[in-house]
Amino acid sequence: MTATDSSLPTLQLTREGRLKHFLTLDGLDQALLTDILDTADSFIEVGERSIKKVPLLRGRTVVNLFFESSTRTRSTFELAAKRLSADVLNLDINTSATSKGETLSDTLLNLEAMASDMFVVRHSQSGAPHFIAETVTPGVAIINAGDGRHAHPTQAMLDMLTIRQHKGQFAGLKVAIVGDILHSRVARSQIRALNTLGVEEVRVIAPATLLPKDVESLGCKVEYDMRHGLRDLDVIIMLRLQRERMEGALLPSEREFYRLYGLNEEKLALADSRCIVMHPGPINRGVEIESAVADGPQSVILNQVTNGIAVRMAVMSMAMSGQVSERVQPGEGAGQ
Amino acid sequence: MKTSAPESLCITGVTLLSGAGIGDQVTSVLIQDGAIAAFGKQAEQATADRVLQAEGCYLSPGFVDLYCNLREPGNGQKGNIASETRAAAKGGFTTVCAAPDSSPINDTGAVTRLIQEVASERSPIRVLPLGATTRGLEGELLSDMAGLTAAGCVAFSNGSLGIRDARVLRRAMAYARTFGYTLMFQPNNRALAADGFAHDGLVTARLGLLGIPEIAETTAVMELLLLAEETGVRLHLSQISTARAVEMVAEAQARGVAVSADVAMHQLVFTEDALSGFDSRFHVIPPLRSENDRQGLLTGLRTGTVSAVVSQHQPHDPAAKRAPLGETAPGLSSVESVLSMGLMLVSDGELTLPELIRALTSGPAGVLGLGVGELRIGVGADLCVFDPAATWVANDTSLQSTGKHGPILGRPLPGVVRYTISQGSVAWQPT
Questions:
Q1: Which of the residue ranges A244-258, B40-54, B145-159, B343-357 would you say has the lowest mean pLDDT?
Q2: What is the pLDDT of residues B31-48, one digit of tens each?
Q3: Among A216, A247, A284, B270, which one has the highest count of C-beta atoms within 10 angstroms of its own C-beta?
Q4: Is any Cβ of chain A less than 8 angstroms from the Cβ of B165?
Q5: 10 Å Cβ neighbour count for B196?
Q6: What span, in angstroms and rounded, lies between the C-alpha atoms of B376 and B203?
Q7: Which residues, 6 or more positions from B62, have their beta carbon under 8 angstroms from its beta carbon?
Q8: B261 by DSSP, 3-state: which?
Q9: Which residues are B10's β-sheet partners?
């Protein structure tokens, strides 16, 4: 028996199937993901101009609401919003309100009073952006900038854009994600995106302690042996390993992890010769990836960063226009 | 519970229903001096102070809840004895066991007596306190079990916390066994459960929620069963959630271990899927598990391995549930919806009506040795009269509990309790 009436797909889409929030890739179809990639492609050109602005969010206020610290993600969201001509407010709630005991609901009420149009949310709890989308006043778009272990959909989409730029298409690709899948919101969103966009095979390569139970149900194959898992690969995505994983008895040591699951040139040679290497960053050189690989010819790690701005511009402009289309629509269901 | 001058009642137009079966004719029941006095024509011919017409209704023994959070003393924003027993009476319950994790915790006779005093003034039904097995539920020092029993505790629980230290657990069992007390434990290995709040499985894999693995329950069940077997204590496993635990209990019962078990009604109706939209209402501990587990629990109920269904009612103030899922408080406000959820299982063919009623009446009564759960002349009139064909909608107004986070809101639910009779008096009727 299903208990819930408000499922994720209906929450983030308008009745016409357009984005109005961007919370997760679950429930978004291939056409919509392709639309995001195409829109992002069109914004890449904006970044190459001397005047890097388009007026799509002129007069709109975007609040970067980061309950967890982040430098890169927040700055690319900020740049994306500014290139769309929005006014941007950065709030590190991490260090302000919640440490004084204010609840998330109360923080939101205060921010709504500032008449914001969009919240870009990062939070340590899985589902926090979903909670905010259900709680805020209709008309405010919520963009998930990473929630707990759940999802990091803009990161996954910028990765998809990078793959498309280098491989042309998704059909027939074999992709592996290596490392700490268990704690990774990036991996969950990537697996979903890769499946929706129709790659041939997604592999996850990790020891059993770093894999969620029932991970195959997400649409991937498990490989414990990295050398075996790398054969014929077109794309390798390395994940960042957090130091605290040693303390929870999930791993014996960084050294052993690097020996078994780190990517070096010798292991990379086992993949297809045109295989690209990706990493959501920030990278731990010598923990999950060797410098020679991170900086080598097959690495596209810096392309990912550039694409991050374009993808975030795409998602922000699409969600805002979805919200506007609901606002102008009369009728009982608008803004639900 | 409130005591008033006993009036005689005649309930007409009902079909008798108990764990033993469904009556084959429409009849009437006479209640005098707090007990069932007559059935059928004899009841109708007697002069009763009040006639309750209940055409189309079933009359069953009143329901017994082995685990219900009344939130008093100490948590008035979440509920109190008056509000939560009114909710329970509306749900057809005539006896509720009050969980020990009030504030202060029910680990002294003074708290037990306080609960009973408040209940005697404000509760329309019987409230039976459960004592804390260890002081402060901390799992270190035994509470005064004999003193608590003298004050009115009917069994001992350690709330949702369990006892981590196996040596303390073993001694608690040996001590309880000395005096024939029943220990009720929610099996949960806290090291394995860690900070989890959802079943470790398909939904946690997808949503990245912190999981509680099945083995957090089964390893705890194994430890409890072995220790109970060795000490000879009367053990009751509260709110088991896995198919494997049901199998383990059945094996232990077969080799003569004095163990019984219950399951929360929501575990029989919902699965891990209920969390797929991050709905904080379905943050419950133990978590809603897989469909396979749900099926195993239903099988356990049908075979009698699991003898009782409980509400595990945990009312909360709205703020406790209004946060990202992992930051919310666990528990459903469920006591008013237990019968309706059970009738949904019956209409889906997953339980028979007598199986459902047995699990709500004679089953739990048997765990505590209470002489209720039967319909015959001379037994105390704790009764539930419900209309299986009528529907109601749970919402902020209809729910009597302070907790408005019911399991199924805003759509028609089958089964309306017309009258709850507690010790011969009307404890609930629609206004």
A1: A244-258
A2: 999 999 999 999 999 999
A3: B270
A4: no
A5: 18
A6: 48
A7: B92, B93, B94, B95, B125, B361, B372, B382, B383, B384, B420, B421, B422
A8: strand
A9: B30, B51
- Chain A interface, best mutation among B192, B204, B207, by max A CB count within 10 A: B207
Which class is domain B62-368? alpha beta
Give A130 to chain B, closest Cα distance, Å: 8
DSSP B54-65: EEEEEEEEPEEE
Q: Which residue has the tokens 């019984």?
A: B260
Alpha helices in A170-300 (DSSP H): 185-196, 226-229, 254-261, 265-268, 291-294
Residue spans of the domains in chain B: they are 9-59+379-428, 62-368
**DSSP structure string for A71-101:** SHHHHHHHHHHHHTT-EEEEEEGGGTTGGGT
Q: Nearest chain B Cα to A215, which residue?
A: B205
pLDDT of residue A3: 40
Give kind and range of the element (H or E) at residue A38: helix A30-48
Chain B residues within an 8 Å CB radius of A105: 319, 322-323
Name the one residue in this structure whose structure tokens are 């469904």: B22
Strands B259-264 and B93-98: unpaired
Give me the amino acid identity at A285: R
Question: Which residue is it, tokens 């006014």?
Answer: A87
Among candidates B391, B265, B268, which has minimal Cα distance to B338?
A: B265
Q: How close, in Å, is residue B408 to chain A by CA atoms?
A: 7
**Would the CB atoms of B408 and A3 count as touching at under 8 Å?**
yes
The verdict on a CB contact (< 8 Å) between A214 and B202 is: yes
Is a pLDDT exceeding 90 seen at residue B97? yes
CATH 3.40.50.1370 at A8-152+308-328, yes or no: yes
Please tell me which of the candidates B208, B210, B274 has its beta carbon nearest to residue A3: B274
CB contact under 8 A, A212 and B408: no
CB distance B346 to B328 below 8 Å: no
Task: Please give the pLDDT value at position A48.
Answer: 82
Q: What is the ipTM of this complex?
A: 0.89
For the structural domain made of B9-59+379-428, what CATH number should be given? 2.30.40.10
In CATH terms, the fold of domain A153-304 is: Rossmann fold (3.40.50)
Structure token pair of residue B272: 């891990």
Q: Which residues of chain A are in CATH 3.40.50.1370 domains?
A: 8-152+308-328, 153-304
Q: Are strands A118-123 and A61-66 parallel, antiparallel or unpaired?
A: parallel
* pTM exceeds 0.80 for this model: yes
Q: Tell me the longest C-alpha to C-alpha distance in chain B.
A: 65
Place of tokens 């890769």: A194
Distance CA A115, CA A308 (A): 27
Q: Distance from B327 to chain A by nearest Cα, in Å?
A: 8
Beta bridge partners, A223, equal A205
Helices (H), B77-153: 81-90, 109-122, 145-151
Contacts of B11 (CB under 8 A, 6+ apart): B28, B29, B31, B51, B52, B54, B59, B383, B385, B419, B421
Give CA–CA dist A93/A122, Å, rounded. Answer: 10
Q: Count chain A–chain B contacts defined by CB atoms under 8 A.
A: 98
Mutation for B interface: A65, A183, A213, A244, most B CBs within 10 A: A213
Q: Are B206 and A217 within 8 A, CB to CB?
A: yes
d(CA B184, CA B19): 23
